[in-house]
# Entry
Amino acid sequence: MAEPPRRRLALNLSRQVLGLLGLVIGGVLYALTGRLVAPWDSVGVGVLFALLGLTALWYARGERWIQVLGLLLLLYGVARAVWLH
# Structure
């Protein structure tokens, strides 16, 4: 009698490591951008949010909530860089 196939725990460690690395890099960039003189600090943070939104849109691969989140981040980033400083 053949044994049933065992289920493996599919743990994608590289995704978790990349997420943590991205969080650390984002925090460092945010802190460095905050050291710029006004109004460039706000413009820099807006650009970072816009880039994050573009990256989320690119990464979404058909997931609607990530697309909406990316669009909101992009719009907020542009608004912060242009008007909210």
